[in-house]
Amino acid sequence: MALRIPIRAPLILMGMLATGLAQVQIPASASRGFWALPENTTVVEGAAAELQCGVSAPGSVVQWAKDGLLLGPDPRIPGFPRYHLEGNPTRGEFHLHIEACDLSDDAEYECQVGRSETGPELVSPRVILSILVPPKTLQLTPEAGSTVTWVAGQEYVVSCVSGDAKPAPDITFLQSGQIISDITTDVNEGSQEKLFITEATARVTPQNSDNGQLLVCEGSSPALDIPIKVSITMNVLFPPGPPVIEWPGLEEGHVRAGQSLELLCMARGGNPPATLQWLKNGQPMSTAWGTEHTQAVARSMLVMVIRPEDHGVRLSCEAHNSVSKEIQERGITLQVTFPPSAVTILGSASQSENKNVTLSCITKSSRPRVLLRWWLGWRQLLPTEETVMDGLHGGHISMSNLTLLVRREDNGLTLTCEAFSEAFAKETFKKSLTLNVKYPAQKLWIEGPPEGQALRAGTRVKLVCLAIGGNPDPSLTWYKDSRTVTEPRPPQEPRRVQLGNVEKSGSTFSRELVLVTGPSDNQAKFTCKAGQLSASTQLVVQFPPTNLTILANASELRPGDALNLTCVSVSSNPPVNLSWDKEGEKLEGVISSLRNAPFKGSAAARSILLRMSSGDHGHRMTCRAHSIQLRETLSTFYRLNVLYPPEFLGEQVLVVTAVEQGQALLPVLVSANPAPEAFNWTFRGYRLSPAGGPRHRILPGGALQLWNVTRADDGFYQLHCQNSEGTAEALVRLDVHYAPTIRVLQDPTEVNIGGSVDIVCTADANPILPEMFNWERLGEEEEDQSLDDMEMISKGSTGHLRIHNAKLAQAGAYQCIVDNGVAPPARGLVRLIVRFSPQVEHPSPLTKVAAAGDSTSSATLHCRARGVPNIVFTWTKNGVPLDLQDPRYTEHTYHQGGIHSSLLTIANVSAAQDYALFTCTATNPLGSDHTNIQLVSISRPDPPSGLKVVSMTPYSVGLEWKPGFDGGLPQRFQIRYEALETPGFLYIDVLPPQATTFTLTGLQPSTRYKIWLLASNALGDSGLTDKGSQISITTRGLDQPSGEPDYQLPTEQPAGISEKTEAESEEGPIRNEYEESQRTTDLDNQSSTVSTTDVEPYYHSMKDFNPQLPPTLEEVSYPRGFTGLEEENMAFPGHLYDEVERLYDSSGAWGPLYDKVQMDPCDLHWSEDKYDDPRGIYDQVAGDLNPMEPDSLHFELGGHLV
């Protein structure tokens, strides 16, 4: 029965996929409803496959089954992305198309058609889709791509395994392109079902021809278009062929001695190529060979020079390689032809006349034998006997004997033995001798000075011996007193005897004997002999003493011993006179009698007796021998060696001076015999090591050397000297000079004004000099450095700078300089503090401070005073002491050198309570002073004062003024000016607003101008009525030279300023738009200012108050002369008073000093500068804290006027 599956029921379809229709029996008649049926199909893995299914009833539901699993009617076949149905369903085309087939697609397939209105259920016959999987790899053992080395004729096993494939692949082996038949194949299951692996094994026997060829494993399969292959390269080893020797000549083995023989040995074939070796009688003689790999030929060249001993030698060439079973050889035996290496004549060719000479001629071995013949001159002689004997190396020795009667006329002829042979036709071998026939000389005599003539020692004398005839030449031998005369050549001595060679002139022979006469030649007999002939002569020589000797009766001498010295002249001709002296002092002695002496001369002696002392050590006792006839004196001396203990000499240095950190040498001048055995130095009871130390060394002469000397090394050093005769001691003082160091310097030194004081400076130094103290005043100006009114005193190691009637101008820094000649000088700083009572700043007539009395603002009152020591401030209000415990009152005190400040801050200023007169009182131990400050309400500013001209040109004028009280609000300045002959006024604002100088430009030359200066704040301006704020000028003409400005010249209007009409009177000036805008802006600003109402009032603005402290030491802002801080010896005991010398001005002027500290209650904050220098003694002056909000308005501006 067929299964009907509704088209619109996909869920039911998926359930059916799980169970399948594999079990449904399809009737055979069902195939009749197909117009196209699937067929068995085979494809290669990765290719596409299509199974045909054509249905006659187009409206039916068609689906495919794979191994019984239904794939569903959906043409896209969900779950199988590579499957889909192709064709037109309306025509009944339901072909199954599979892309990129793999092994999972290898199965049975059938096409099933569901029941429909047009047809019954149908099932196609089952067909098989076979997927062919080609093998991907072949694994070869040995490894594919490698080269294997095999020996020819041996059997080897090779295996080849394929990768997974379907069906199992076929494996074939090829050896050098030929298929191997001896192969075993096994097929096994692969890594997956339906896959197979083929393993094949081959037995290979390589031959010579396989060398370098490939052994290939080839795998073929229906899935492969081209078989896959892997291979290995065969390196087949096989022995070489036999060696061949190339003989260079026709007759193999025949050579001649001296010939250079070159033999080439070759062996062909073989892997590896043959190794060649030459042997001589079985012994290796050459192992060098070369190989031509392309032709597989090995060559070895033997080069040898043939010698006679090579006769019968067998030369062989051996060839083999690593696989040769036996060594192959080719040999040649040498037949050597060689002549005799020498011809020798035995026997003497010298004989007396009329006697026989017997000689033998013998040759060295030769092959073949040689013949001998004799020649005397050009005359051939007959031998008496000839003999042939066996020689070396297979050769023969020839010998010929000759007996000859010699005559005088044969003397000098050449006697020759000649060897010859047909084998050596081009060569002749001979040996020759010169015949020497002996006969005697005929006459002999001597030529020289006459006998008996006196010759002085050192005289050069020449004796000549002459002879006539004789062979051999007469030898002419000289004798002195029966001893043969030779020519001695002692090293480094002049030649006294020069013996010449025998000279020949015709038949006369001569030989010279040149003498430099000496004592031994006196009365000597000189004889010349030639064979049996002889001749003689005798010399008389005068000479000084041959030896002058001093004999002593004692070898060891000590002070007090007696010494007897005897001077002996051994021999002289004629006799001499002896004398003694001691270091130039002549001494008398005792004369001894004359006696006989060597060389047939005379001897003499003289003795003296001496008493020894230590001073005699080393003195020379000189003995002189004088010959009157020879006018010559000979001297010798005896040096006295007196043993005595050490004695220090008078030149011994007892005091040594050295500089600290330098070197010192303590010398030793001592006399002793023997020399001192040891020099022991002690210092302060401690013995210095003789081996030396880190800072000392005892020199070989005993001197003590010190380095890096310190003042602790100063003192006495004891030296102990000792020898075998006794000891001695000495004291040497080391005086160490060192640079001064300031030990005591009282800093600061204080004195009341008008009093007297000593600035004391105590130093440690060596040496201490009377004038080594010096003082300097440190100041910026040259006049500040004067010490004319001070007294400098030096007492030993202490220096004083005495000041009488101290003045404020003398306060400041002083420098003590100590210089004793040893660098560097010491420098120490000390400050002189002149104490004085407080001096409060007294503005005239009254200081005003403006503040808003709205109980929300604050005001700061500033009181400043000078004085030393520090000042204590007290405050009163309207004469009543101020209660500083009240939280509305805050008081800060600042000290900077001799300047002191007190800042009283009043919080929540009330007009009813705080608009009052405040009194500040400054007190120190020397007195007190006070000043008054009026706290008032804010108002319009006071007019500026002191308007003046500071510079002028034809087109401009420079102005300067003093600002007035600003009324408690920020003020600005405006200039109004007019040219007197031109109607209208011109206005210009001063920028920046706080400036007190301004250059008015745009004027005309030689013109009169009138200038007004206005001050204004948020409450109004100062008006034009004040005479101190107006001025009249006349600008300089173009031809007017520079000079004082002319205040009568008029001026003109600058560009850019609005012009005013005459209606704008001085009493009521009309403000321009710029001025109004500035007024509006200034309403937001606040100020609290100090001023006076005097015509030239003292005024010091506190708006920008920021106390300026003197620079720290790191900033090196010292006055001139205060520049030695970096020196190592600068002493800083105690504290420094910062710039004390600037705080006291002898004129008492406050201006420049006061201006250095500017105060402003609107900028009340502590300075961030740190003054940690321990040398400062006064507290720093800091800024004030600002209690006011920057955006707050005074209560007057807020509408609450008091």
Structural description of this entry:
Its main location: membrane. Strands 62, 65, 66, 69, 70, 72, 74 and 75 form an 8-stranded mixed β-sheet that branches. Strands 71, 73, 76, 77, 79, 82, 83 and 96 form an 8-stranded mixed β-sheet that branches. Strands 2, 5, 6, 9, 10 and 11 form a 6-stranded mixed β-sheet that branches. This protein starts with 9 loop residues before the first helix and ends in a 44-residue tail after the last strand. The protein contains 5 helices and 97 strands. Among the domains are: 33-132, Immunoglobulins (Immunoglobulin-like); 138-237, Sandwich (Immunoglobulin-like); 241-337, Immunoglobulin-like; 348-438, Immunoglobulin-like (Sandwich), CATH 2.60.40; 443-498 and 506-538, Immunoglobulins (Immunoglobulin-like); 543-640, Immunoglobulins (Immunoglobulin-like, Sandwich); 647-736, Immunoglobulin-like (Sandwich); 746-779 and 789-818. With 1202 residues, it is mainly β.
Task: Give a summary of the structure in a few sentences.
The protein has 1202 residues and is mainly β. 3% of the residues lie in helices and 45% in strands.
In the CATH hierarchy, what is the superfamily of the domain at 33-132?
Immunoglobulins
CATH fold topology of the domain at 33-132: Immunoglobulin-like
Structural class: mainly beta
The top-level CATH class of the domain at 33-132 is Mainly Beta
What number is the mean pLDDT? 80
Low-confidence stretches: 1-30, 1043-1202
Helix content: under 10%
Q: Tell me the CATH architecture of the domain at 33-132.
A: Sandwich
Please state the overall shape, judged from the principal axes of the Cα atoms: flat
Output the radius of gyration: 71 Å
The share of residues in extended strands comes to: over 45%
Distance between the termini: 124 Å
Largest sheet: 8 strands, mixed
